């Protein structure tokens, strides 16, 4: 592992801790000695991590002189000082440092600065930290209207950080927190960064968008149904560890009861509802176009539905508002029924009332007649009983 160059330099390759010591160069009557102090820096998992993992850094030193008492300063990829926890430093030969939980943004080249006053040492040792994760790691909420098209997207950072290890992943969906999980697709990424996707069975239709960058997972729901709402989770797995990123899909719809044109003098209820509870900073709100403040109805906290009673024709809008920002707006036009329909409705109401009255009268008359027949039968039964007991027959003279 060693060679002498043309300039009479000694080059030692693949330096090891055991190479520490005193090297002497003799030339004629001249002798020059150099003391070689060797440091070895090791990071757990070879520097490949997932978010929230806690790496450990091990710094070892060897020298022919008494080992120095080192001061170690760490700088992350943003050149900010990181203050680790020192776990071991008994013999000055081995220092073990425990870092904080990592985030995907911690990926990059870190610096370990080693300092000693005696002998004087100021040495920088660089090392790489790669954290595989998502560009959007936090829970994201996405709103959609029934029958609309929705695209759900996850951006991975493996190309950005030049991840040189293979890993796998999957996309799954569940309607509620404790509901059954349905797997939508599997994917794997090779050490060369090539991605392969496999669509799994599902009870609703979706499309995998292939014309996107290799570091993006996207699925398209061409026609969203109300029961397509829920949590869509993308998971990455590496060496038995995993990390997830979720998108919560909230679906909104509007309807009316009863459905159809509004007859004159009648009333209908407009219903606006979402598929899951809204956060505290969001609400549903009905508004009548060109209406007044009286034509506004808001949902209360934790409500998934808001209703408004309508007695006149007009255009109504239901807004889903989050932090004063309108996420979705759906309209419902209330149309007035033609006059003849109103007459039909009125006639049907009058006819129905008359029919109900007639049926009530018929029931009363039938009840009275039935009661009279019952009373007559009772009297005849009593008369027969009387005659049988006296065993006489009285004839009229």
From TrEMBL:
Pfam families to which the protein is assigned, alphabetical: CD4-extracel (PF09191), Tcell_CD4_C (PF12104)
Gene3D superfamilies cross-referenced by the UniProt entry: Immunoglobulins, transmembrane domain of human cd4
The segment(s) forming the Ig-like domain are 265-329
Kindly state which keywords UniProt assigns to this record, in alphabetical order.
Membrane, Transmembrane, Transmembrane helix
- Transmembrane ranges? 340-370
InterPro entries in the record, alphabetically?
CD4-extracel, Ig-like_dom, Ig-like_dom_sf, Ig-like_fold, Tcell_CD4_Cterm
Q: What is this protein called?
A: T-cell surface glycoprotein CD4
UniProt organism field: Gavia stellata (Red-throated diver)
């Amino acid at each position: 592992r060693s060679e002498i160059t043309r300039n009479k330099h000694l080059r030692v390759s693949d330096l090891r801790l055991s190479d520490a010591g005193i090297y002497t160069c003799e030339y004629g009557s001249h002798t020059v000695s150099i003391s070689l102090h060797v440091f070895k820096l090791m990071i757990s998992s070879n520097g490949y991590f997932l978010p929230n993992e806690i790496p450990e850094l091990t710094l070892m030193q060897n020298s022919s002189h008494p080992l120095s008492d080192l001061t170690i300063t760490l700088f992350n990829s943003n050149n900010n000082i990181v203050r680790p926890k020192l776990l071991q430093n008994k013999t000055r030969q081995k220092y073990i440092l425990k870092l904080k939980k990592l985030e995907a943004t911690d990926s990059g080249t870190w610096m370990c600065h080693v300092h000693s006053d005696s002998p004087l040492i100021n040495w920088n040792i660089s090392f790489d930290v790669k954290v595989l994760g998502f560009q959007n790691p936090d829970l994201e909420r996405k709103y959609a209207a029934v029958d609309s098209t929705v695209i759900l997207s996850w951006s991975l950072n493996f190309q950005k950080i030049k991840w040189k290890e293979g890993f796998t992943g999957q996309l799954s969906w569940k309607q509620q927190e404790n509901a059954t999980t349905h797997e939508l697709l599997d994917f794997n990424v090779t050490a060369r960064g090539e991605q392969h996707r496999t669509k799994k069975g599902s009870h609703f239709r979706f499309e995998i968008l292939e014309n996107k960058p290799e570091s993006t997972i996207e699925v398209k729901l061409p026609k969203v149904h109300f029961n397509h709402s829920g949590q869509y989770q993308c998971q990455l797995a590496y060496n038995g560890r995993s990390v997830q990123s979720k998108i919560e899909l909230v679906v909104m719809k509007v309807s009316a009861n009863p459905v159809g044109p509004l007859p004159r003098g009648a009333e209908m209820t407009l219903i606006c509802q979402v598929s899951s509870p809204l956060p505290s900073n969001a609400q549903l709100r009905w508004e009548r176009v060109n209406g007044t403040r009286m034509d506004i109805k808001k949902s209360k906290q934790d409500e998934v539905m808001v209703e408004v009673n309508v007695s006149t024709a007009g255009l109504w809008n239901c807004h889903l508002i989050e932090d004063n920002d309108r996420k979705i707006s759906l309209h419902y036009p209330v149309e007035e029924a033609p006059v003849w329909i109103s007459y039909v409705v009125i006639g049907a109401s009058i006819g129905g009332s008359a029919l109900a009255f007639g049926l009530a009268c018929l029931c009363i008359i039938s009840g009275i007649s039935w009661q009279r027949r019952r009373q007559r039968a009772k009297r005849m039964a009593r008369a027969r009983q009387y005659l049988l007991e006296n065993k006489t027959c009285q004839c009229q003279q």
